[in-house]
From TrEMBL, chain A:
Bilayer topology term: Multi-pass membrane protein
GO cellular component: plasma membrane
Entry keyword Membrane: yes
Superkingdom of origin organism: Bacteria
Record protein name field: Phosphonate ABC transporter, permease protein PhnE
A GO molecular function held by the record: ABC-type phosphonate transporter activity
Family: Belongs to the binding-protein-dependent transport system permease family.
PROSITE patterns reported in the protein's UniProt record: ABC_TM1
Primary site of residence: membrane
Keywords on record: Membrane, Transmembrane, Transmembrane helix, Transport
Amino acid sequence: MSLALSASERAELVARHQAAIDGSLKTRLITTGIVAAMIALFIYALTTFELDLWRIIHGFSNLGTFVVLMLPPDPGSFARAIVFVKALFETIAIAFLGTILAAIFAFPLGFLAAKNVVANRVVHFLARRSMDTVRGVDALIWALIWVNVVGLGPFAGMLAIMTSDVGAFGKLYSEAIEAADRKPVEGVTSVGGSKLHEIRFGLIPQVLPVIASQVLYFIESNTRSSTIIGIVGAGGIGLYLAETIRTLEWQQASFVILLVLAAVSVIDLLSNKLRFAIIGKRAV
Amino acid sequence: MTGSGILAAIDFPGDGPSMTLAIDRNDPAIRAHADLYRREMMVKRWHTLIGAAIFIVCIVLSAIGAEVDPGKFAENAWRFPKYIVEIMPTLRPATFLADLKEWYWGLNGWLKLLWQTLLIAYVGTILGAIGGFLLCFTAAANLGGTGWLRWGTRRFLEFCRTVPDIVFALIFVIAFGLGPLPGVLAIAIHTMGAMGKLFSEVVENIDMKPVDGMTATGAGWWQMVRFAVVPQVLSNFASYALLRFEINVRGASIMGFVGAGGIGQDLIEAIRKFYFTDVSAILFLIILTVMLIDYGTERLRHALLSLEHRR
């Protein structure tokens, strides 16, 4: 007895289960259609980008040159290195403070936008939509606007991080609050607690760990965004990032990029540790 | 340990004179529990206090680092609402349509740039997804493969997603010249880093039985990936790609800030040159587009996920 099929047996098997092998005609047509449409759009997009082969080759050879020029990373002078590190500290400060302030300001907003706290539909709708609008604007755009208001410098950057995150935090809070268990709230009501007591003793203990972990996660991601808001003059290392690249100081540029990478991974590590400590390994 | 401690420390008032719970606070065993509980709470309180102190020190240091100046803020805070009011157009009910037309005087050009923004995000997402797709199988820990290759792939992906896309754009603008091409490449590289990681996590969570089955029939690595892994992960990949597209639309809308194409170039010009009503006009266009894309991709993702559940 051999397990292997002879050619004729195999052909017979394939013929008998042809439908199962091919799949239904409809799904295949739909899949082919979607893929074809995506490819068509892709090609159309490429034609609108005014590409030509020479430019692409030239660009990549330029890139190669830049990479060679970037090595080894070198701040130029010790004084310059100090300036960069100071800017890095400023960046982290912007991210940290901006996130904390956003977390505080979003707290009441989150409760306003949660269906199980504020039953009024108009308030609920307005809170949600205004948060969506604020969230739709990128931190870099907010930075530009704040620079117009408080002038150049890290303060504008901090306000930008704060503004763009208030919307995101408000939304996350309201979702956490809506997902909270009703029973502790009912318990507080049943022993005669007021509305405020309900929130303080019924809801907040439930949502606080979720919120804390979200805040940590945002500090992490804001460290990334605050490295670039300096490009528009809102403080932090972004200014030097843009400056060194635009003045073609490649060794300094790669040094700054390395600094950013190191800072981001340190913050990542720290916030992961803290997050696990706060909510336990499972819940992440 | 703490559980019994809590019980002992609670004071039960009882509701009748005869009702005493059988907890004697002077019982040495219970007293020991109560003391232990008190000590543990003390330690916990200390930890909270120390945590709070560190937190406050961090805040103060950050406030110094970020040059927070409440005086300056109080002095200039009124400018923010003023700015918001200034960028709003004057829309009178009597001449509403004409006002609207004046507000959106540049609509044709802006729509063209907005369309370009969407295309930049689209092409960037597709290229990044293809890159992430090709790299995720070597980055995943459960498909065999050599250790150093996995390590190298992971570090490469990490580099790609940690460097912000706008920094790539800054470099590419110098290498390729102004225009949408550097924006597309920057978004593609960043997307590849982010998606490669997400994809490899999806791959690490697959059911390994089909893989074993393929290996048992003598399939090579490529065949194993093609027939045992890809069918399991494809719908998840598509859902992540859609999510990423949405993020990339936001990203592409600011690429113009550094000259890498899209609506950002008109926006930064309007903000820098104080073309007030243009700022709000372009911002509303961007917000509306982002919301629509949000809504559309969410619908598509739900459809994809339900497709997955039906299987």
